[in-house]
Amino acid sequence: MDIIETLKADYKKFPVDQTYSIYADNVYFQDPMTNFRGLERYKKMIQFIQTWFLNIKMDVHGIRQEKDFIKTEWTLSWNTPLPWKPRISISGWSELKTNSENLIVSHIDYWYCSRFDVLKQHFFSLNSR
Question: Taking the model in full, what pTM does it have?
Answer without folding.
Answer: 0.90
